[in-house]
Amino acid sequence: MEEKLSPHAGENISRLKESVGGSADFYSKKLEIQGVPCAVCLFDGIASTEKLWVMLLEYLAEVEGPKPSGEALLRYIFTRTDLPVEPQLAATYSDAMNRLTAGFALLFIEGCSRAICLAAQSMTHRAVQEPSGEGNMRGSREGFTDLVRVNMGLLRRLMRGGGLNMEILQLGERTKTEVALCYSPLHAPRRLVDQVRRRLQNARLPVLFDSSYLTPYLQKRRWSLFQGVGYTERPVTACAKLCEGKVVLLVNGSPFALILPYFFAEHFQSLDDYAQKAFFASFLRLLKYGAFFLSILLPGVYVCAAQYAPQILPQALMMKVLGAEQSTPWPLMVEVVLVTLMLEIIREAGLRLPKPIGHTVGLFSALLIGDSAVAAGILSTPVLIVTAFTAISMFVLPSLYEQITILRILFLLAGGWFGPVGLSALLMVLILSVCGSGEAEYPFAYPFLPLRRGAVRDGLLRFSWPALNESSYDLKEMEK
């Protein structure tokens, strides 16, 4: 059972100061309000002492007449003043610490075993900026920031019709990180919301510093290559998913919102699709599907064709490939694997270096190593062309980069070791994996499986807005 606050203000301050080990940012001061001994405390840096004293200034003077009791002063401040106070009083030491770490200032009054929480927050945070990971030509330029309260405000500003509920949970045994569970009661099935809430409450995390920490606890199949949880940095995208009946999770300290459930077809959609002409958006979507299969299949198909079925290649191309391979000391499959790993190392180096030099180092390394390796006869030109084209195709779908990288290596090994049979078998396993996975009882392959009207209208292609508006779509409609 949680320990309740003491009716002595000084004792409460001493206990809180002891619990934080005399931390330098813990500010406390004893004072009198209308002749009653009181004490205030806050954490400097997330709450402002200046705002605190501006709020309390007019109440610090003595009043004429008899001195009120502690309970009378608490009721007066809580109900009859214009001070910005929380609607709930802090009654235990755990409540008091939670409010302090949320940026509130606590006012203890002698004779009262409860504390008034004053809104004196003064947290510095990164301003709302355009997200760097989701590039779009049109649409909103706002991106989520690091404070969950700011992100909640961005969602509320976009959904002003009232169909938005937000629940605050605290996760992380040591960090007590705020997590906002956002959903639309008009569109989201109650079963989905309850399931997500239950999984969050059952998540046993010592610390929580990023939204990605929650992904393993939200997935039904933890060892699946594809995950049914999506990410977005854009409030407008999160609002669109809320209107579809999905659940959005915001984590304090992370600018990435989680979307649950997330379907395979959504990786090929973007905000620009709905701002462009329908025919051009459909063309780009088909291009993305083609880039996905090229990025995972091209190296494996190239190795398989060169080793097991060179007759399927045009004669001129076959002669060039064979001539190039004879001039290199490596077997073809080993050569492709080496180039693939080299590109991943260059990408990782460019990503981890400071931005002013990261892109330059990555580009310079790729050009220098590629040109030198071909000139020295260590690598062949066709292999470099195939792997470079594959790498470019991967960047079309950044949300699937991890899965594509693993699949590309698997298909490469299957084509090099087992030929066409290995490629066909692995492709079937991939299709079954996509069709068989899913979160919260929703198939990952939706709307292709089970087949719905939206499979063509807004899955494979993108029809015009009048055609899309013929029937509404949300998860409640999906369950009918």
What's the order of the H and E elements? Answer: HEEHHHEEHEEHHEHEEHHHHHHEEHHH
Low-confidence stretches: none
Number of strands: 11
Fraction of helical residues = 40-55%
Bulk shape: elongated
Descriptive account of the structure:
This protein is an alpha+beta fold and 480 residues long. The protein folds into three domains: 9-118, no CATH class; 148-262, no CATH class; 277-439, no CATH class. 47% of the residues lie in helices and 11% in strands. It is built from 17 helices and eleven strands. Strands 5-6-8-9-7 form a five-stranded antiparallel β-sheet, sandwiched between helices. The protein has a four-stranded antiparallel β-sheet with strand order 1-2-3-4. A two-stranded antiparallel sheet has the order 10-11. Helix 5 (148-158) packs across helix 8 (235-243) and helix 11 crosses helix 14. The longest helix has 36 residues, at 401-436. It is elongated. 31% of the residues are buried. The model has no long low-confidence stretch (mean pLDDT 86).
